[in-house]
Amino acid sequence: MKISAKLLLFIFTGGCIDALPLSGNGTESAIQKLERKVDQLYTVVSQLEMKIMTQPVSCPAGYTEFQGSCYMFVRYLMSWDDAEKNCQRFHGNLVTIQSAAEQDFLTDYITKNGDLYPHWGFWTGGIDRGANGMFRWTKNNKLIQNEGDFLGWDYFDSGTTQSNQDCMVLWRNRGYLWHDLGCQDKMHSVCEIEK
Questions:
Q1: Do 135 and 152 contact (CB within 8 A), yes or no?
Q2: What range does the record give for the signal peptide (predicted)?
């Protein structure tokens, strides 16, 4: 079976042109016509790319959005290390609480959905392994006690009580204020992804 060069060119260009003559003055005008079509396609693609880039980024399924971050409240009980690994599997970390508004959001969400989370607390990204009482956020290694930082410690538990309590939890019995517990304890957790 013999296929004509015109048919091949028609197939190659995706039918954008009627048919290109293979020689003569018509070839140049057909090429110019094709170049204009390609330019039009580039314009359309550029416009679509701009629309995509300016669309607000939504959170993945199972996450809740708040002030530019996505939060997943994990129901399964895990040790702190397992909870952090679980968050990393979803390209996040245990939550880094940076403001009173963020603390209020977390507390409100947990309280409203309390039936789903019956255990004592939720792991956060705060940890003080190797530096008793000097808690840092795992995501950025920032010292939590810096001046000007939001501090959500429970008045009765300032994060410095016992040497084997190295991981920070939002503690249910104290209104989800911060407490330090043993990292091997099994708790719910909150994962965070910044958008």
A1: no
A2: 1-19
